């Protein structure tokens, strides 16, 4: 079936490629002309495993096409899937202006007055569907022509295509059998492959997304809170969370203590959920604490660095990894930016390396007398006083650390992700410091 997707970012592009690979005819619209031209040429603006080859396949098969023409986008299908950004405003609320732009465009360019299903794929606060109906009304459009549905996305960056194609569940919030029928057709192949399709009302679907992200973030902060306890009592947080996670009711995922969560989703979505609570007159205190614990991890790492190295003036620190997690070049809300700014503020010099995220990071931190970028991890560490392992890329696990240590000025190794084997690092001559 035909589907129009608005927004060629992580979610829109991945969704477009994945749905096209399942045999649908997908038209991807974006306001960013450069991005659309790049995609038409078969090049991806983001780094994701397998994305480029699959993109080229679906372009070649004619299943995925692109447009900058809004009239063509609106006319293409009754399914209008909105995948634009919903970033945080200063006060923590979700900025829905890009969603509103799409709704406005669809309504204004629906010249044939065809019925359209406006699908919220972007992460939006519960109740947004009502807001969308208000926007439509305020445009003097007939509400009979539009129906809103919620179909939140749960993919993780770094594993985005895999997650879209192998979902734990597909959530569809609908208010009519018409919408339910369209989703059943869209996700028919997924259902046949055994992936659960959950139909519910729209508010519940919107809330499932807010609730799931906040729960996962809370789980990480719980592990980080335990890391603080472990440091006080000489326990090992990796073992503690392993022991907890073996209980099936708890589960081992998302209990990895470290520098805390970053990225374009958890920080903004937890903040937005707290604000949703406030608007409802509720105090979602668990989530406030989740953000506080998360921020504290970064400060704790800085404290550890200062207590090991003393005055950072003229010290040089190498950072292994800049992306907010492995497998992506995304640096939105990466802990690396906080740490680099904090270190530079204390007059340290930094040597920075990441296998794919340097171009994005350079847009925030330019090369200078105190900031140098490198193209190999081992080079980054030459002559430095300390290494911070920030992003757990696989390549950092297999480096020749004996050699790296011998080329350093001093021997401090801060494992902000608890990924290295402590004993082996000590054997290689490092003063190893983990998080908990
Ligand atoms: N990144 C993720 O891993 C992820 C996962 C699940 C859900 N989400 C949610 O999905 C939404 C999109 O996130 P993202 O990371 O893909 O964003 P993104 O910033 O990567 O992409 C957004 C795209 O929308 C385009 N855009 C802006 N205004 C537009 C308009 N009026 N019409 C068409 N295109 C327009 C932008 O040019 C950009 O290409 C957000 O709500 C996010 O919270 C993200
Ligand atoms: O045990 C863990 C797991 C993750 N993280 C950190 O948490 C952040 C988020 O990681 P992850 O969830 O893997 O990446 P995202 O791509 O941000 O995906 C999250 O946010 C998306 C956007 O809403 C959702 O779709 C996904 O389901 C949800 O996992 C990263 O900084 C990770 O390093 C930890 O510190 N410890």
From TrEMBL:
Residues 318-422 form the UDP-glucose/GDP-mannose dehydrogenase C-terminal domain. The active site is at 265 (nucleophile). The keyword Protein transport does not apply. InterPro entries: 6-PGluconate_DH-like_C_sf (IPR008927), NAD(P)-bd_dom_sf (IPR036291), UDP-Glc/GDP-Man (IPR017476), UDP-Glc/GDP-Man_DH_C (IPR014027), UDP-Glc/GDP-Man_DH_C_sf (IPR036220), UDP-Glc/GDP-Man_DH_dimer (IPR014026), UDP-Glc/GDP-Man_DH_N (IPR001732), UDPglc_DH_bac (IPR028357). Gene3D superfamilies: Cytochrome c1, transmembrane anchor, C-terminal, NAD(P)-binding Rossmann-like Domain. Substrate binds at residues 154-157, 209, 254-258, 262, 325. Belongs to the UDP-glucose/GDP-mannose dehydrogenase family. This is UDP-glucose 6-dehydrogenase. The lineage of its organism: Bacteria, Pseudomonadati, Spirochaetota, Spirochaetia, Spirochaetales.
């Amino acid at each position: 079936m035909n589907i129009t997707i608005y927004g060629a970012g992580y979610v829109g592009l991945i969704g477009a490629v994945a749905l096209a690979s399942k045999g649908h005819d997908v038209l991807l619209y974006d306001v960013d002309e450069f991005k659309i031209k790049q995609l038409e040429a078969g090049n991806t603006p983001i780094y994701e495993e397998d994305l480029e080859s699959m993109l080229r396949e679906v372009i070649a098969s004619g299943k995925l096409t692109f447009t900058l023409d809004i009239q063509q986008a609106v006319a293409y299908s009754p399914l209008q899937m909105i995948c634009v950004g919903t970033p945080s405003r200063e006060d923590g609320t979700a900025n829905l202006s890009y969603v509103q732009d799409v709704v406005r465009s669809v309504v204004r360019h629906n010249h044939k007055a065809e019925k359209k299903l406006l699908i919220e794929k972007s992460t939006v606060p519960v109740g947004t569907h009502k807001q969308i109906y208000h926007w439509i009304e305020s445009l003097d459009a007939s509400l009979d022509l539009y129906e809103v549905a919620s179909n939140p996305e749960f993919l993780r960056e770094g594993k985005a295509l895999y997650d879209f194609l192998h979902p734990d569940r597909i959530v569809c919030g609908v208010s009519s059998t018409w919408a339910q029928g369209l989703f059943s057709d869209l996700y028919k192949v997924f259902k046949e492959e055994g992936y659960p399709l959950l139909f519910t009302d729209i508010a519940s679907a919107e809330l499932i997304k807010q609730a799931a992200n906040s729960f996962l973030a809370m789980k990480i902060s719980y592990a980080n809170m335990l890391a603080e306890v472990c440091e006080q009592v000489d326990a090992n947080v990796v073992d503690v969370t392993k022991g907890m996670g073996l209980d099936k009711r708890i589960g081992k995922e998302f209990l990895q203590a470290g520098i805390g969560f970053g990225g374009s989703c958890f920080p903004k979505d937890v903040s937005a959920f707290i604000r949703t609570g406030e608007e409802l007159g509720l105090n979602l205190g668990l989530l406030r604490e989740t953000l506080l614990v998360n921020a504290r991890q970064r400060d704790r790492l800085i404290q550890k660095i200062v207590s090991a190295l003393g005055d950072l003036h003229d010290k040089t620190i190498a950072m292994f990894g800049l992306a907010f997690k492995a497998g992506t070049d995304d640096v939105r809300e990466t802990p690396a930016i906080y740490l680099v700014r904090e270190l530079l503020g204390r007059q340290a010099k930094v040597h920075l390396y990441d296998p794919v995220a340097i171009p994005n990071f350079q847009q925030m931190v330019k090369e200078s007398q105190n900031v140098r970028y490198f193209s190999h991890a081992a080079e980054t560490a030459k002559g430095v006083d300390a290494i911070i392992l920030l992003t757990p890329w696989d390549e950092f696990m297999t480096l020749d650390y004996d050699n790296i240590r011998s080329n350093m000025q001093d021997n401090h190794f801060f494992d902000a992700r608890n990924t290295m084997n402590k004993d082996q690092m000590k054997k290689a001559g490092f003063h190893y410091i983990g998080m908990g």
